[in-house]
From TrEMBL, chain A:
Keywords attached to this entry: Endoplasmic reticulum, Glycoprotein, Membrane, Signal, Transmembrane, Transmembrane helix
Membrane topology: Single-pass membrane protein
UniProt similarity note: Belongs to the nicastrin family.
Source organism, top-level taxon: Eukaryota
Record protein name field: Nicalin
Coiled coil: none
Source species: Hibiscus sabdariffa (roselle)
InterPro entries assigned to the protein according to its UniProt record, in alphabetical order: EF_Hand_1_Ca_BS, Nicalin
Residue stretches spanning the membrane: 520-539
From TrEMBL, chain B:
Transmembrane segment boundaries: 39-59, 71-92, 104-124, 144-161, 168-190, 196-220
Membrane topology designation: Multi-pass membrane protein
Family named by the database record: Belongs to the TMEM147 family.
Protein name in the entry: BOS complex subunit TMEM147
Cell compartments where the protein resides: Cell membrane; Endoplasmic reticulum membrane
Source taxon at top rank: Eukaryota
InterPro entries for the chain: TMEM147
Keywords: Cell membrane, Endoplasmic reticulum, Membrane, Transmembrane, Transmembrane helix
One Pfam family, short name: DUF2053
Amino acid sequence: MATFKKSGGLRELLESMYSVIALLFILVACVELCDAAAAVDVYRLIQYDMSGSPFGSRFAALNHHAASLRFPPGADLSRTVLIIPLREMNMTFVREYITQKKPLGGLLFLLPEVLSFKHGGNKQVYEKEKMKKLLAELEQLLVHSNIPYPVYFAFENDDIDTVLTEIKKNDAMGQPATATTGGYKLVIPTAEPKKVASPTITNIQGWLSGLKADGDANQLPTIAIVASYDTFGAAPALSVGSDSNGSGIVALLEIARLFSLLYSNPKTRGRYNLLFGLTSGGPYNYNGTQKWLRSFDQRLCESIDYAICLNSIGSWDNELWIHVSKPPENAYIKQIFEGFSNVAEELDLKVGLKHKKINISNPRVAWEHEQFSRLRVTAATLSGLSVAPELFEGTGSLFDGRQYVNESAISRGVKLVAESLAKHIYGHQGKGVQIFADESSLAANPAYIRSWLDLFSQTPRVAPFLSKNDPFVMALKKELADHVDEVNVQHENLEGIFTFYDSTSARLNIYQVASVTFDLLLLLVLGSYLIVLFCFLVITTRGVDDLISLFRRPPSRKVKTA
Amino acid sequence: MTMFHFFNCAILTFGPHAVYYSATPLSEYDTLGTSVKAALVYLGTALVKLVCLATFLQVSENDGFDPYQELLKALIGFIDVAGLYFALTQLTHRNISQNHKFQAVGLGWAFADSVLHRLAPLWMGARGLEFTWEYILQGLEANANLVLSISLAALASLIWLRKNKPKTLIPIIYACAGIVATMPSITSYLRRGLGWYFPKVVGFELFTSLVMAFISWQLFSACQRPSA
């Protein structure tokens, strides 16, 4: 009986011990990342492969000590993260580090808070041109290099500023932070970045039918107005592209709204169909436009009189440019350009013509109209830029935020395009007739432009990171559907030579850590304290003899008996 | 690194208790049972205090010093003293001299106090990457607490266990016991009412604990002397 009870009790004891041990393991594995000195939102540099070659920052997780630019020369930085605020950026230094592939633990760039679309608001940007130039240079360097360590962008705030001043103080004293000297540690606990599986690009097209006279069997001619809505930038989570190409899309939506007003009444409906295209894949040599055009049937293609592409019309002062690929002597080009120039004169602004030949063997497509031209459709791009941008240049960079665009510039652009189109559609040859005059019911609505521009300036739109049914794309489709007769959405896969990796934003924890030497020193101090305490207590309670006897070996028996 | 820091703070907080036990004759006379019983009595006292605090105290929005609330807390703190009385007098101890009895009870009391108040924050906090001085200061506070507990146990044993005390010393004994018993209220007044920072408060605690220990040692040895 007794043994039975005993074994049963023993089993119970063992079982309870297992649960205790399990609980202990859970506790041990528990939260180690508690309060940090600061926690900041950070945004990672883009990581992509183009035709197999890797570009961008190849790592995401970070767990290194921090240093500023004032590190002692000759220090080993392979396990250090450099924190570089934009004001103190030394371009040659960064370029040297990246191009010569010097070992580094990581890079953290601090951008002025005014550029943040979450907190910056509409504050004034000082030294706009200088910052724009610097950011453009930095972005081009980073986007086209292969960087084997994490690169992050963050916005300056009070926490991170205090941390940075402390780091600078420590560095100035000649002690960069390492495991043995304490300092600040930057930790970003994310998983390794994974490939984005089959990135989709979504093209939205809207069709506004013209007035077909009874008994007219022929297809009405079509005019296409196109703009691309997606962006690409060094930090995809920050790439809002207010000017490139938020301004183009906002102008397109406004033009669609104005013409839908005109076309709603059969008396004012023109004899032209209007085709609105919101294309994606713009930064990738207008891949989306190409796929969209390929999906047209032959009759539609032939019926397009001409296409106007809108690109970056939000930050110009007096002069807009019309870029064409057919020679300016071409009759159609002449007609388009004359139409625009006449309207421009009336609106008191200048329009210039720029011709850039297409090189079929060169895969680089700098303007959207080139995709049309390759299919023998007359097309032109209206843009505030005078020079064709390079690959991944100016397609939603870090400075391209709300402060960079000018609503009135967009309004004037809208008026220019709308009036020119109307002149062509309704055939007014004379001057002095303004259909979309200010103060009329057909005037460009500044509130509409402003609200859509604000929305665009808060939405990063890098195509691989937009899902198939992304709410923003659906919103664009819905808005277009309000203005046109028929809307179609086309989903395509992005061209195979590009591969993108996820993990675009994370949370950075900054810890103030003590060095190993400090812990060892503390251990030494505590050990000696306890020993002193022990000796003190033995002496006071038992006497000094007892203390000494503790250290003397007990006398062996032989000695005692002897 | 972080477990290292936890280990350091742990030996600072709990080491002195073990050292005290092994260094003094307590280990020779095997008074562990007494200490354990005292620790359990402390646990019971803490529960009773918790219930009383929950019932009678109001939660204040600001962190200021409210005299009425603090008075209430001090009164509830005297439950501590009652618990100590219980541990000293009512528990059956094996035949150990009074000298060792109060030390064992004080040790057990202080150890239970440290474990209950300081182990959990230490485990949760000291293992993190972020370094603060807080846990080292907490360890020093635990040391001061040990000295204070032993002095309080000594004075309490003088009050209740020793029958023949010199008449002149009795008021002093009661005064010192009162001061040591209200130590928690005094420290909370310093922290909240005067706004002292934690290092300053810990320094004050260490200083007063040494002073009170010295005074109670003198009183104890004075009462040891056969009364005239």
